Amino acid sequence: MAELIPLFPLGTVLLPGAPLPLYIFEERYRRLVADLLELPPAERHFGVVAIQAGREVGADGVKALHEVGCLAQIAAMQANPDGTYQLEAIGSRRFRLLDVDDAAAYLRGEVEWLPEPAGDAADLVPIVKERYTRYRDELARLRETTIEPPDLPDDPRLLSYVVAATVLADLRDRQSFLEQYDAASRLAVESRWLHREATLLRLIHAVPADRMLDIRFSTS
């Protein structure tokens, strides 16, 4: 069943379990936060959809948004004296964007919630764990530092999102991780990505300098 939720288009991909810190200063999104504060804490959420092109998107520009996004649940908030807000949100449920409505002060999206099947992932779990460890070892070697890996769960759904949220992937690859139908498909894509990236790190001896190596991840 479709549901109408507030939308926050961003130039990044939010994944289930991943943190999302935001500084809210634009008037439309200050209005969004003010409206959310009138709701019970459990209902203070909004949809995050990555922008394909440009910085602003209207109702007639839905083609500029990716089709699959993630619900952000507000975990903490600070109201500043100047009317701005600092938010900490956590990614939760995935959705498919069906339509966009700009009748309110901010964008809203008609969405359908996506299932989270595991698929046939048993054989992929150890492969992804091994390749993820090798990938992070290559990063540590290039940065001349020690990277403590996160605890890698055995549950294929959790593992697929831990990996997706903690690698140095660009928007296109992160969006691809998000869009996979089930955990097995996601792990298969990540397995190929990890093998490729670890090989490139070893051969090219370079690593992006503008990304953090470790991202907090929530399994709750």
Helix-strand sequence:
EEHEEEEHHHH
Question: Tell me, what is the CATH class of the largest domain?
Answer: Mainly Beta
CATH architecture of the largest domain: Roll
Number of helices: 5
CATH homologous superfamily designation of the largest domain: LON domain-like
CATH topology of the largest domain: Archaeosine Trna-guanine Transglycosylase, Chain: A, domain 4
- Unreliable runs, pLDDT <50, ≥5 residues? 57-62, 209-215
Q: How many discrete domains?
A: 2
The geometry reads as globular
Question: Which features characterize this protein?
Answer:
220 residues; alpha+beta; Archaeosine Trna-guanine Transglycosylase, Chain: A, domain 4; Methane Monooxygenase Hydroxylase, Chain G, domain 1; five-stranded mixed β-barrel; 5 helices
Describe the structure.
The protein is of the alpha+beta class and 220 residues long. It folds into two domains: 3-113, Roll (Archaeosine Trna-guanine Transglycosylase, Chain: A, domain 4); 124-204, Methane Monooxygenase Hydroxylase, Chain G, domain 1 (Up-down Bundle). 33% of the residues lie in helices and 25% in strands. The chain has five helices and six strands; from the N terminus they run ββαββββαααα. A five-stranded mixed barrel has the order 1-3-4-5-6. Strand 4 and strand 5 form a beta hairpin. The radius of gyration is 18 Å and the shape is globular. The protein starts with a strand and ends in a 16-residue tail after the last helix. 33% of the residues are buried.
